[in-house]
C-alpha cells in the first residue's frame, strides 16, 4: 500500500510561530507553536532573526516525528506581511533585526517617500497607499541609521527568511513583494527606477516567484536535524491572510474572507485589471492572488478584537473573563442596542483611512448597562466591516453575499450573528482550525505537483471539512441597515473633524 504524502506548513506570525503537518487530504495531523521572539531597543520593538530560525527548526522537530519526516513531500512558508530584515547577500547572515510591520520607526521616511511620487500613479503600480509599514520605508530608515548595512545586502520578508534558513535560497513571492511599495503588481516586476530614485540598489530585492512555487530544497544540514530528506521542495506561500483565503476556498469573485482577531481583515478577489481612481477612492489595498488571473482586495480594522480586549480590561475591574463576556451577551436582546461605537482605538482603515480617527460611544442613556455597551462594541466592529464590504462590492463590480469567517473571534457566536444581521448575508464557519498553515501547505502542494491545480487542492480539502451556517435575521437586519445608513455613516465626518482638534 502506497504511503500517503505529507505536507508541512509553517506560519511566522506577529505573536506566534507555528508548524503543522497535514495529510494529503488536508487533515491536520500535528501542530507545534511557540512565541515569536521579540525584544526592545532604542524605543522600538524588533524580532530576533537568530532565535526565529532556531525556533522554526525546533517547531519542525516537534510537529514531525522521525518516521513521518521521510514522507514529507513539500514545505510551504507563510508569514505576516511587511515585516522584514537585511541579510548579507553572500553569507545570509542577518545585518538587521526583523523590523515588525507595526513598528512606526520609519514614519518620517514614509512621509518623505510618499511625497516623492504621484500617489495615484504609485497606487496604480503597487496597489498600495504609502505607509511606514512597507519595506521601502524601512530600508530608508536603515539607510539613514547605518548606510553600510545596505552594501551587498538583500531585503527578505519574514517568510522569505524562514525559507532561506531551510534552503539557502533567497527569494520572495508576489504577495510579499507587493508589500514593499517597490514592486509593480501591474507588471509583476521590481520598480527599478523608483528604487534607484532613493539611492538604493535594485539588487537589494530578491527574485520573485508565484505563491507556492518551490524556491529550493531542504539542505543537508536541515535534514540532519529534522529528518526531512535533502532536496524536499520548499515554497514561499506568502502573505498569511492570502494563504488563509486559499485554505477556505475564497478564490472567486463574490466571496469574502473575514479574519477576526485582535485586528480584523476582509479579503476578496476579482478578475485582474488595471487599478483606477475608483479603486483608490475605496481605501482598500490590492495585490496578486494565487488564483490564476485574479487580484485580491483587502481592508481591515486594527482594533476589532482589540476593542473587546480594551472593553474587558478598561471598563471592568477585575477584567471580564471570556466566559463572563458570553454570559453578558446571552442576556441581551437580538435587536440593535441603540448605541453606536466607532472602533477607532488606533485610527481607521478602509474605506476612509485616517490614522487620527478616535473611538467613540454615541447614544448612551441611563437604561443602558454593561452588557449593552459590550454588545455595542461588537456592533461597531460589524458596521466597520460592512463599510469595507460595500466599498469592495462597488469596485469589484459584483455583489458580495458569501462570507467565510476564520480566526479567534469565531468562538463568539453572538458576534457572528451580529455580523450576519448587519450585513444581511449568510456567514459560513468552516471547522478549519489553522487556515494560514493549511493554505501554506496547499499552495506548496500545488507548486510541487501533488495537486494538479488549485481547483483540485481546494476540492480535496473541502471534502473533509464541515461548516456551520449563521443566517441573518431579516427583520433585525432591516433595523441595523437603517442605523448604518442613516446614522453610523453620516456621523463619520463630524467624528473625524472632532478627532483633528483634540
Automatic annotation (TrEMBL):
GO MF annotation: an example: kinase activity
The keyword Kinase belongs to this UniProt entry's keyword annotation: yes
UniProt GO BP: carbohydrate metabolic process
Taxonomy, superkingdom: Bacteria
Pfam family, one: FGGY_N
Family matches, as InterPro entries: ATPase_NBD, Carb_kinase_FGGY, Carb_kinase_FGGY_CS, FGGY_C, FGGY_Carb_Kinase, FGGY_N
Residue ranges constituting the Carbohydrate kinase FGGY N-terminal domain according to the UniProt record: 7-246
UniProt keyword Nucleotide-binding, yes or no: no
Residue ranges annotated for the Carbohydrate kinase FGGY C-terminal domain, each copy included: 294-446
Signal peptide per UniProt: none
Key words of the record: Kinase, Transferase
Family label: Belongs to the FGGY kinase family.
Name of protein: Carbohydrate kinase
Organism of this sequence: Cohnella candidum
Amino acid at each position: 500500500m502506497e504511503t500517503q504524502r505529507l505536507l508541512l506548513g509553517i506560519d511566522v506570525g506577529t505573536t506566534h510561530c507555528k508548524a503543522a503537518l497535514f495529510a494529503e487530504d488536508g487533515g491536520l495531523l500535528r501542530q507545534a507553536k511557540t512565541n515569536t521572539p521579540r525584544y526592545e531597543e532604542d524605543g522600538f520593538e524588533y524580532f530576533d532573526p537568530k532565535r526565529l530560525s532556531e525556533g522554526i527548526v525546533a517547531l519542525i522537530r516537534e510537529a514531525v516525528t522521525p518516521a513521518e519526516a521521510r514522507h514529507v513531500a513539500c514545505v510551504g512558508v507563510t508569514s505576516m506581511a511587511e515585516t522584514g530584515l537585511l541579510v548579507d547577500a553572500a553569507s545570509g547572515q542577518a545585518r538587521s533585526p526583523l523590523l515588525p510591520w507595526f513598528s512606526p520607526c520609519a514614519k518620517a521616511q514614509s512621509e518623505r517617500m510618499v511625497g516623492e511620487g504621484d500617489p495615484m500613479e504609485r497606487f496604480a503600480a503597487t496597489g498600495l497607499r504609502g505607509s511606514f509599514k512597507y519595506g521601502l520605508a524601512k530600508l530608508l530608515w536603515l539607510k539613514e541609521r547605518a548606510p553600510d548595512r545596505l552594501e551587498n545586502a538583500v531585503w527578505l520578508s519574514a517568510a522569505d527568511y524562514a525559507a532561506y534558513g531551510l534552503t539557502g535560497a533567497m527569494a520572495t513571492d508576489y504577495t510579499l513583494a507587493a508589500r514593499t511599495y517597490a514592486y509593480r503588481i501591474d507588471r509583476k516586476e521590481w520598480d527599478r527606477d523608483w528604487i534607484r530614485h532613493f539611492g538604493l540598489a535594485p539588487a537589494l530585492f530578491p527574485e520573485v516567484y508565484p505563491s507556492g512555487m518551490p524556491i529550493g530544497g531542504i539542505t543537508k544540514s536541515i535534514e540532519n536535524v529534522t529528518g526531512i530528506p535533502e532536496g524536499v521542495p520548499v515554497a514561499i506561500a506568502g502573505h498569511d491572510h492570502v494563504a488563509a483565503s486559499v485554505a477556505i476556498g475564497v478564490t472567486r469573485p463574490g466571496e469574502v474572507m473575514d479574519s477576526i482577531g485582535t485586528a480584523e481583515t476582509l479579503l476578496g478577489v476579482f478578475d485582474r485589471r488595471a487599478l483606477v481612481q475608483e479603486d483608490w477612492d475605496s481605501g482598500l489595498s490590492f495585490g496578486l492572488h494565487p488564483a490564476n488571473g485574479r487580484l485580491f482586495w483587502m481592508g481591515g480594522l486594527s482594533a476589532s478584537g482589540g476593542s473587546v480586549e480594551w472593553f474587558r480590561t478598561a471598563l471592568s475591574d477585575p477584567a471580564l473573563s471570556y466566559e463572563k463576556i458570553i454570559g453578558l451577551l446571552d442576556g441581551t436582546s437580538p435587536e440593535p442596542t441603540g448605541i453606536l461605537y466607532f472602533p477607532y482605538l488606533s485610527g481607521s482603515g478602509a474605506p476612509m483611512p485616517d490614522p487620527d480617527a478616535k473611538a467613540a460611544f454615541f447614544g448612551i442613556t441611563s437604561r443602558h448597562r454593561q452588557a449593552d455597551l459590550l454588545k455595542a462594541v461588537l456592533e461597531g466592529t460589524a458596521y466597520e466591516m460592512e463599510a469595507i464590504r460595500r466599498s469592495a462590492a462597488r469596485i469589484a463590480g459584483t455583489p458580495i453575499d458569501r462570507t467565510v469567517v476564520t480566526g479567534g473571534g469565531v468562538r463568539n457566536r453572538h458576534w457572528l450573528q451580529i455580523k450576519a444581521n448587519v450585513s444581511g448575508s449568510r456567514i459560513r464557519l468552516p471547522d478549519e482550525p489553522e487556515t494560514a498553515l493549511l493554505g501554506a501547505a496547499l499552495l506548496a502542494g500545488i507548486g510541487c505537483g501533488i495537486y494538479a491545480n488549485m481547483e483540485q487542492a481546494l476540492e480535496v480539502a473541502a471534502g473533509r471539512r464541515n461548516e456551520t451556517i449563521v443566517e441573518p435575521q431579516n427583520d433585525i437586519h432591516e433595523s441595523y441597515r437603517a442605523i448604518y445608513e442613516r446614522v453610523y455613516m453620516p456621523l463619520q465626518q463630524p467624528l473625524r473633524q472632532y478627532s483633528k482638534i483634540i
